[in-house]
Specification:
The chain is mostly helical. It has one helix at residues 16-54. The chain has a domain at 15-51. The protein is elongated, with a radius of gyration of 25 Å. The N and C termini lie far apart (76 Å).
Length: 61
């Protein structure tokens, strides 16, 4: 089995449309990760901090 990377032509450039599509896909993945982080990690932590501040733990003396 031959190396398929040796068949790549080095003097041709990738079309701009393809470059734009790949970059848009990467940006969509980054956006999805940021939104998931916001709503699944940071938002619940914030709500927990707010609710925890209203109900302080009782200390035993």
């Amino acid at each position: 089995m031959g190396n398929p990377f040796k068949k790549i032509l080095h003097h041709y450039e990738v079309p701009e449309v393809l470059k734009e599509k790949v970059l848009n896909d990467i940006n969509m993945i980054k956006l999805t990760i940021d939104v998931a982080d916001l709503f699944l990690v940071k938002y619940p932590n914030t709500i927990g901090d707010i609710l925890g501040a209203n109900n302080p733990k009782k200390e035993d003396n």
